[in-house]
Amino acid sequence: MSLVSQCRDMREARGKTLTEIGRVLGMASQNLSAILLGKKDSRASTLEALAAALDAEWVLVPNERAQEVRQVLEGKGSGPDRSARSAVDIFLDQE
Length: 95
Fold this sequence. Notes:
The structure is a single chain. The protein is mainly α. It has one domain: 434 Repressor (Amino-terminal Domain) (Orthogonal Bundle), CATH 1.10.260. Helix content is 59%, strand content 0%. The chain contains 6 helices and no strands. The mean pLDDT is 87.
């Protein structure tokens, strides 16, 4: 999924209008629309500002880790078992 399409999806998910985001960026909503539709290229600084306006940030993920990151973002990834007792707790219980 491209960065631009992620920004477009996040804008919709956050319920932000093109006008609202454009106002924050100091950009006409028509120009913002063209960027989000992939019809116009944009500078990285504009995309960074767009991400910030959406309360998000860019993250560069190596291709070999991309699938794992997608799974975590979808809530399907594995992470630490927060309910498991730590090694310190086990050690302290042995005393």
